[in-house]
Amino acid sequence: MTDAKLPGDDEAAFIAAARSNDAAHFALVTERYRRELQVHCYRMLANYEDAQDMTQETFLRAWHKRESFKGHAALRTWLYRIATNACLDFLDRRDDRTPVPAELPGAGSQVHYLQPYPDRMLPEDPQESVVARETIELALIVAVQHLPPRQRAVFIMRDVLGWPASKAADALELTVASATSALQRARVTMREQLPGRRLDWRSPTTHELSDDERGVVKSYMNAHERNDLDGLTALLRDDLRFAMLPDPGTVTVTAKDAVDGWVSGGLFRRGHDDWRGVATTVNRMPAAALYLRTPDDPEYRLFAIAVLRIVDGEIAELTGFDAAGKPWLGLPPTL
């Protein structure tokens, strides 16, 4: 994503719209950047709804600042700068947008505000998406939240988007030395938060789910629909990392303990044993939307979204999101 690769037509059209105060033309020129800007805001904030709001704030700020754009930098760069600063301002105003210590022993910290990102809202053009799986998976999004806001911005610009140091520093009104120092500190934290993970997010990678992943998701949903607890246990790795947001903490549990915990919490018992599943993808990860029908209800209602990280045919990580009563991710609320 370098300025040299960008065409000049958008910049010229933007300047023309700015000079004519043509709001409709302005919206048309900038709309093509919405999805990638929204992904950028999501990486900064880890919350899909906040990312939508800050993307809209970006366009409002761009409209009010339109006369300051002279075409010296690419329009994309200018918009990313506005989006980043909108997110930084948002984080300055909110004291509930940082990880907090988990209530459960050994669970580390938790990101209460984490939300999944629907794949259907990712940029469509693979050349411009800059959303390899490693850069949008929940593990990276959570790890980034452990960085102070400006370190977070530098890390995303430099290591995820691949911006040169001078460009990132200029966007954040920092010296190159300050931006480089912030990046070095951010990388240390990221290595601590993602032990054993590949940290080269710009290497070639696939966007598509494997047949193995699709098969595990199907088996996971079938196990729910049949109330097959043994089958469900067999799908889980015995060092499963599990979180159910907004409940406290991510824990590592055995497969049996995980399923026993779900049963003791009421799942799969009478009244909570009539399930249907819909396979989907979020954050370039396989996921199952689980629908529950209670005895007094003729319809299956969206209950939870389970986002899965699958390794060698087993579920190594399961992040669940309470979706009851929420029209989430474009999924139907009932079946």
UniProtKB/TrEMBL annotation:
Q: Which GO terms describe its molecular function?
A: DNA-directed RNA polymerase activity
Question: Keyword set for this entry?
Answer: Nucleotidyltransferase, Sigma factor, Transcription, Transcription regulation, Transferase
**What top-level branch of life does the organism fall under?**
Bacteria
- Family annotation (Gene3D superfamilies): 1.10.1740.10, 3.10.450.50, Winged helix-like DNA-binding domain superfamily/Winged helix DNA-binding domain (1.10.10.10)
PANTHER family cross-referenced by the UniProt entry? ECF RNA POLYMERASE SIGMA FACTOR SIGG (PTHR43133:SF65), RNA POLYMERASE ECF-TYPE SIGMA FACTO (PTHR43133)
Q: What is this protein called?
A: RNA polymerase subunit sigma-70
**Enzyme Commission number(s):** 2.7.7.6
Boundaries of each RNA polymerase sigma factor 70 region 4 type domain copy?
139-189
Annotated ranges, domain RNA polymerase sigma-70 region = 31-95
Task: Spell out the subunit comment.
Answer: Interacts transiently with the RNA polymerase catalytic core formed by RpoA, RpoB, RpoC and RpoZ (2 alpha, 1 beta, 1 beta' and 1 omega subunit) to form the RNA polymerase holoenzyme that can initiate transcription.
